[in-house]
Structures are given as structure tokens and as C-alpha cells.
């Protein structure tokens, strides 16, 4: 399905939610010692690398089809709701070793590595470095995205393309009887507050475009490029060209 989506002109973005390699629980199981995961030969480390190997196997299909992928591992690392969050120095090592395995050892050079903290914290506290990141962005769940302008400006200092890597117009679950969100506001915010943002991703379920109003007005706005507007997106091509240099 994703390969067909790419063939039709869409950009493939993959977010990774690896299971907790120490407990076997889901990504949201934060009970872990990252140092143990990173220790060579540890049980947790072997499970982490086993999962990476499976991910690499799946990503090879996109490489064979010459499809670039916005690859977003270990997101919202500035919080403590995922097992990879909370320790900046160990997180940087986790990211770099993941990059080393996938990009170098497995030669998956079609990946564009996307670093994306939540919008409320220090955006660069966990930043692994320019060599290991292609695109930066932030995740935000709020009805007023203008509260993320500080995060946006901080990420711009990296010199990387900036995206809104997840957006949901509700912080938490919707309140009974609450009015729907007007998604056309996104176009206004992009024009006035985030002019250098190159892409955004609307999150699913009760945050999604189909659950609220204004989706058509947003997606047909002159600022927005859809599959019908172009078969390739310049920012993706530019990032891949930079990786080859």
C-alpha cells in the first residue's frame, strides 16, 4: 500500500514504535535502563538489535523500489512516556548506533532521518548532531499551534528542513459536546507563524482530518501541495542530493 502511495506521488513517512527491549512491553512501557540496552552483549541489547534487523528487512523494500522514506525513530524523546525518553546523553548514543546500523551497516541510504521532540520542551537537548539528522520537526497536540513558535524557531537554528511531524488539534481526549476543530486554521498558521515549515502530518483517530471541519479548505489551499499537484516534492529531492554529496 505504501509503495503504491509513493507511486502516485505521495511521500512515505514511517514512525517507529519499537517494543521495550528490556521488558518486552510496548513502546509506552518506560520501565527500562537505557545503559543496559546499549551495553554490548546484554539481553536487552540483543533484543533491541533484533528489532532493528526486522525493521531494516522491511525498509529494504522501499530501497529496492527507489522510494525515499521520512524515517522518524524515537520521537518525543523529551518526555518520559516512551522507553527511549528522559536521558539525553544515552538517547544520543541510541540514535547514533541506530543510524550506524541502518544507514551504514545495512546501507539503507534512502532514509531521511527525522528528529522530532514534542513542542513544549528544549528542542535541542537530545539532538544527536547534524551528521545523524536530515530533517527536524516537532509534535504538537493543542488547539492553538501558535504556542509552538518557540520550538519552531529553535529548530530552525539547525539549518535543517523543518516539519510539523505530528499535529493533533486536541490535547488529550475530546470533551463531550466540544465543537469540531477547523483544520483550515493550519494554513493560516503556516503562512503567518511557520513560513519555513516544509510539511505537516495530521495525526489519526479523534485528531484526524475526517473527524473535524475545514479539511477541504486546508488541502486545497495554495500553500499546500498534494499528490495531484506534483509527483515529487522539492525538499525530499534536495535532502537526498545532500546525502549523496
Can you describe what's shown?
The protein has helices spanning 2-7, 34-38, 43-64, 88-105, 149-156, 185-192, 215-219, 234-244, and strands at 12-16, 69-73, 111-115, 135-141, 162-168, 197-202. With 245 residues, the protein is of the alpha/beta class. It has a single domain (2-244), classed as TIM Barrel (Alpha-Beta Barrel), CATH 3.20.20. A six-stranded parallel beta sheet has the order 1-2-3-4-5-6. It is globular, with a radius of gyration of 18 Å. The two termini are 31 Å apart.
Explain briefly what this protein structure is.
With 245 residues, the protein is α/β, with parallel strands linked by helices. The chain has a single domain (2-244), classed as TIM Barrel (Alpha-Beta Barrel), CATH 3.20.20.80.
List keywords for this structure.
TIM Barrel, alpha/beta, globular, six-stranded parallel sheet, 34% helix, 245 residues
- The percentage helix is 25-40%
Going by helix content, strand content and strand pairing, the class is: alpha/beta
The main sheet comes to: 6 strands, parallel
Q: Strand tally, please?
A: 6
Count of the domains: 1
**Widest sheet: strand order?**
1-2-3-4-5-6
Cα-to-Cα separation, first versus last residue: 31 Å
Coarse shape: globular
Amino acid at each position: 500500500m505504501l509503495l503504491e502511495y509513493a507511486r502516485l506521488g505521495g511521500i512515505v513517512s514511517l514512525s517507529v514504535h519499537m517494543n521495550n527491549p528490556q521488558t518486552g512491553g510496548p513502546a509506552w512501557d518506560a520501565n527500562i535502563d537505557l545503559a543496559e540496552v546499549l551495553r554490548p552483549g546484554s539481553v536487552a541489547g540483543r533484543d533491541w538489535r533484533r528489532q532493528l534487523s526486522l525493521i531494516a528487512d522491511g525498509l529494504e523494500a522501499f530501497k529496492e523500489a527507489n522510494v525515499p522514506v521520512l524515517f522518524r525513530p524515537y520521537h518525543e524523546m523529551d518526555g518520559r512516556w516512551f522507553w527511549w525518553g528522559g536521558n539525553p546523553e544515552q538517547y544520543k548514543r541510541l540514535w547514533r548506533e541506530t543510524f550506524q546500523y541502518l544507514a551504514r551497516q545495512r546501507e539503507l541510504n534512502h532514509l531521511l532521518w527525522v528528529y522530532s521532540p514534542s513542542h513544549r520542551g528544549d528542542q535541542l537537548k537530545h539532538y544527536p548532531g547534524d551528521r545523524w539528522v536530515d530533517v527536524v520537526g516537532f509534535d504538537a497536540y493543542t488547539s492553538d499551534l501558535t504556542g509552538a513558535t518557540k520550538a519552531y524557531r529553535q529548530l530552525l537554528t539547525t539549518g535543517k528542513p523543518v516539519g510539523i511531524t505530528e499535529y493533533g488539534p486536541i490535547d488529550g481526549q475530546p470533551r463531550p459536546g466540544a465543537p469540531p476543530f477547523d483544520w483550515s486554521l493550519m494554513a493560516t498558521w503556516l503562512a503567518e507563524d511557520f513560513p519555513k515549515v516544509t510539511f505537516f502530518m495530521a495525526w489519526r483517530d479523534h485528531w484526524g482530518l475526517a473527524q473535524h471541519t475545514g479539511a477541504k479548505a486546508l488541502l486545497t489551499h495554495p500553500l499546500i501541495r498534494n499528490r495531484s499537484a506534483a509527483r515529487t516534492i522539492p525538499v525530499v529531492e534536495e535532502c537526498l542530493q545532500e546525502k549523496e554529496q
